[in-house]
Write a structure and sequence with these properties.
Number of strands: 18
Distance between the termini: 36 Å
Low-confidence stretches: 1-8, 72-77, 185-231
Shape: globular
CATH superfamily of the largest domain: Pleckstrin-homology domain (PH domain)/Phosphotyrosine-binding domain (PTB)
CATH class of the largest domain: Mainly Beta
Largest sheet: 8 strands, antiparallel
Structural class: alpha+beta
Strand content: 25-35%
Length: 334
């Protein structure tokens, strides 16, 4: 497994991804689905929906039952974003996924033949799965004929966020290359927007997982690797606001997906995740009575680990009656 780059908390050294050799993962190719609209025309929620619906459709076509978590109130008359049939031409093929700043390359393991090579300029979105599909990832890419498809991969157990974070690192490095190639004028240099939309050319935009901190996983056998992420380090995070009140936190949360972490003024050692889901504010205690940092479904090594897992993987925190997405950290001013 990769070690943490202490300077920027990516999983790999930049040089590994800039080189043609790249970073390699063994995954299974599950299938693909045609994408019927430009990802540029969709907001972040709908791009995520494309990825999740593609995973559900491909899984269903291969006999894997996945619960449809869409709310029944969602309109069925909306323009479809993906095709109705999965392409299973290479389904269940063990492949080597090679990630570098040039492309995502998929090679069959048994004979080394290349199945696909999607250049970074043609990739418009990448996301990990959710809940019961947490070991899947999906990414939207154009082929040589400019047709869009969402490709679904099944990763090794607990490795999906390593893969999606590595793709994010490659995106960011490619974006930095793009900036260096441009003259530093307002007309050519574009900032990274809050949702990390990366301009690659006039048609494509790339969504990447947030850079800091790097998400890790639940596999207890690997936890020793993350002992550099102590809960006390949360004070260094810009999304940590100290001992502000619930009311103060709510004044800072303007949109769905806004979130911050604060320290309880009443309970020593307790931390609270405050976020907004539509018109509701959520305030979640992060430390259980045994001192374990957890949500309802998972335990984590640190608060940074918890935030990164849900933010980088586009995985909402599920409570009894709602889901809280972590999209945009609210940064403290000092």
């Amino acid at each position: 497994m990769a070690s943490i780059d202490q300077e920027n908390r990516w999983l790999h050294a930049d040089a590994d991804l800039i080189s043609s050799h790249g970073v390699h993962y063994r995954v299974n190719y599950v299938g693909s689905v045609d994408v019927l609209c430009s990802m540029k025309s969709l907001d972040f929620d709908h791009r995520t929906q494309v990825a999740r619906e593609s995973i559900r459709l491909v899984c269903s076509a291969t006999g894997v039952t996945v619960k449809d978590r869409r709310k029944s109130t969602e309109s069925s008359t909306e323009q479809p974003m993906i095709g109705s049939q999965a392409n299973l031409t290479h389904s269940r093929t063990p492949i080597e996924l090679i990630i570098n700043t040039e492309a995502l390359t998929l090679k069959r393991i048994h004979d080394g033949q290349m199945m696909y090579s999607h250049r970074m300029e043609g990739i418009s979105f990448a996301s990990a799965g959710e809940h019961e599909t947490k070991d899947y990832i999906a990414y939207v890419a154009k082929d040589n004929l400019n047709r869009r498809a969402c490709h679904v991969l099944l990763c090794q157990e607990n490795e999906s966020l390593d893969v999606i974070t590595t793709i994010g690192q490659a995106f960011e490095l490619r974006y930095n290359e793009y900036l260096r190639s441009q003259q530093p004028t307002e007309s050519t240099t574009k900032p990274i927007e809050p949702e990390r939309t990366l301009p690659k050319n006039e048609e494509n935009h790339h969504e990447i997982p947030p850079a800091v901190p790097t998400p890790q996983h639940q596999d207890q056998s690997r936890q020793g690797k993350w002992n550099t992420m102590k809960t006390s380090d949360v004070y260094k995070e810009k999304w940590f606001h100290g001992k502000i009140s619930r009311e103060e936190a709510e004044t800072l949360l303007s949109y769905t997906g806004d979130f911050l972490v604060r320290e309880s003024a009443k309970i020593p050692g307790q931390y609270i995740l405050s976020g907004r889901a539509k018109d509701q504010y959520k305030h979640l205690l992060l430390v259980d009575p045994d001192g374990v940092i957890r949500t309802r479904d998972y335990e984590f090594d640190s608060i940074q680990h918890l935030v990164a897992y849900h933010q980088s993987g586009n995985i909402p925190i599920v409570s009894v009656d709602s889901e809280l997405p972590l999209k945009s950290p609210i940064l403290r001013k000092n």
